[in-house]
Amino acid sequence: MKKTTAGFIAGARENHMTPSITGRTKIIAHLGVPTESFKAPMIYNPFFAARGIDSVVVPMGCEAEDFAAFLKLVFRLRNIAGALITMPHKVSVVALLDEVSTTVKICGACNAVRRTSDGKLVGDMFDGEGFVRGVNRKGRSIEGASALVVGAGGVGSAIAASLAAAGAARIGLFDLRGEVAAVLAARLAAHYPALDVDCGLNDPAGYDIVVNATPLGMNVDDPLPFDIGRLSAKTFVGEVVLSAEETPLLAAARQKGCATQVGTDMLFEQIPAYLEFFGYPATTPEELRRLAMILY
What we know:
alpha/beta; six-stranded mixed β-sheet; six-stranded parallel β-sheet; 9 helices; about 30% helix; about 20% strand; globular
């Protein structure tokens, strides 16, 4: 991919592909706040336009106090195809659903909801799968590896669950809310009894993979999520923040010699799974990257 001077990753803009809205357009609601950091519409919509699919992803800045009522109303729309769920709703949405996947049960969070033909709301979680696919695509093996996940909220829980499913031997968890990390640790241990789970230390030393699953990095003056001096050059460092392609953490990790993964990689890797969940045609991360029009 290449970046234009306007801040776009070249693709759909160069090909003049703009999604059009018709009376038959299906809507995927993108629910969360702040919407300014959303990147999914700039990936899905050029794909829909290129494939001639009459659908569009629409950012909807729904506040936490309105979410429970708003979700039900959104899914009463005749032309709703589904919803992407992001911060701060990934955890609270679970209690509003009729059915959830095993991954949702483990991580206690959900980022995709669809309505079945009989009116049930069904949820799944793809953040972790997207992160793991990205690590594997970069040639890093998760089988038998150790990983530290900093941040045990919705995205951190999903990544931890997917790392465990992919065969990680040891997972460290840290969250400023210690009780949240402890609950996640208990769920992981219950579903993966052979997994070594550590909880409570924010120290990246000795881990093969380290993930920042906190919001730290969304603002340029945010502190780093852990002590960068404790990183080994052999450690793979992953980021989930989408507001910038290279966060201060990734810049510091690269200076240490670490291999890294930017937040948007997780998006590109998980979107094919989302599309299948919503009933759309299959695609690949390569096609999505070629078409994407991402503005930072």
